[in-house]
Design goal:
The chain is an alpha/beta fold and about 250 residues long. The protein has 2 domains: about 40 residues, no CATH class; about 200 residues, Rossmann fold. Helix content is about 35%, strand content about 15%. Strand 7, helix 9 and strand 8 form a beta-alpha-beta unit. Helix 5 packs across helix 7. It is globular. Bound molecules: zinc ion (2 copies). The site of one zinc ion has 8 residues, from helix 3. Belongs to the ComF/GntX family. It comes from Marinomonas piezotolerans. InterPro entries: ComF/GntX_DNA_util-trans, DZR_2, PRTase-like, PRTase_dom.
Length: about 250
């Protein structure tokens, strides 16, 4: 497959970000952000745990982890499996200065949220805050960018104002991808500050969900502060057997 967007040429990036009528991946003329052929390379997360959206090999209601530790959030909406092209696009967006690749992925997330989220409720949209160290490395906050890209489609579909709400980190810790699974769980407690008053219904946005420890810590902080329901929205979820805790 041809990947013209993997160029870091500034004109290429601005063109695709703002005015492209071509597929973001293969560059053929196309009305949508991705042509049908490239979209097929994004693995959809269809056989999944109804609670944490972990991709499963067979259709069971809850994964083993959710059966023993029911999460504090309502459910996770994550339309893609973090592998293949999805994985390449998220990695390039986060670590190789190609944030525009989040746009077609967020479009898929928006369509899934419109299908699956109860838009009659008055949701407030928050993000898992990016740590200072990651912000310095990347120069942008990918979760805030995803939220910004969700604004128009969600507002149009719900007919409601897109309300935002911010959670902050209470202390700095090493970047997620530098921690192993045990360290993530150990360090995930008491990491988030939730300003009062808290909204009743919160959608918490992250780009990628791996162990789920960060979203659980953030969701717990929201619930403890008084939020009734937290739904997680993410571009992708790692496969169940993945040893890659990026
Ligand atoms: Zn294409
Ligand atoms: Zn689960």
């Amino acid at each position: 497959m041809n990947h013209p967007l993997l160029s870091t040429n500034i004109f290429t990036k601005v063109y695709y970000w703002l005015i492209s009528e071509r597929c973001y991946i293969c560059d053929i003329q196309n009305e949508g952000l991705l042509c049908r052929s490239c979209a097929k390379h994004l693995t959809r997360n269809r056989t999944l745990c109804v609670s944490c959206a972990r991709p499963m090999s067979s259709l069971v209601e809850l994964c083993g982890h959710c059966q023993t530790n029911r999460p504090s959030f309502q459910n996770v909406i994550a339309p893609l499996v973090y592998e293949g092209l999805t994985r390449a696009m998220i990695t390039k967006a986060k670590f190789e200065d190609q944030a525009h690749l989040l746009r077609p992925l967020t479009q898929i997330l928006a369509a899934t949220l419109i299908d699956e989220l109860d838009l009659t409720k008055s949701w407030h949209w928050t993000v898992v805050p990016t740590g200072k160290q990651s912000l310095l490395e990347r120069g942008f906050c990918q979760t805030s960018l995803i939220r910004q890209l969700l604004k128009n489609p969600i507002r149009d579909a719900s007919g409601k104002t897109f309300k935002i709400f911010n959670v902050t980190r209470s202390f700095e810790r090493p970047a997620q991808h530098s921690l192993n699974k045990a360290d993530r769980f150990r360090l995930s407690h008491k990491t988030f500050n939730v300003p009062q008053p808290v909204p009743e219904y919160v959608v918490l946005i992250d780009d990628l969900i791996t162990t789920g420890s960060t979203i659980e810590a953030c969701s717990k902080a929201l619930k403890k502060a008084g939020t009734k329901q937290v739904v997680i929205a993410a571009l992708a979820r790692t496969p169940a057997q993945s040893s890659d805790y990026r």
